What does this fold into?
Amino acid sequence: MKVFSRPVPTSAANVPTIIGQGADQVGTIGLQAPAANAATIFFGTKDEQPFELRPGANALLPITSGRDLYLYGTSGDKISIGIF
It folds into this structure.
């Protein structure tokens, strides 16, 4: 498992772009929004990010590639991404 703490992009970007390295062939990606964040982080596919990750919340997503997961939020907020 690898964990990355990064600034949240203000426009939709995929996981490899956010963490600065590939995230192919993964089984699960964990997302955690620090409680200190000011706003909600949105995540989903390239075309639509309808799911919310509020400050202090987390999500475990069973996906096969980080290239398929996009997220965005408010400038200055952080996201922790775990690759399992």
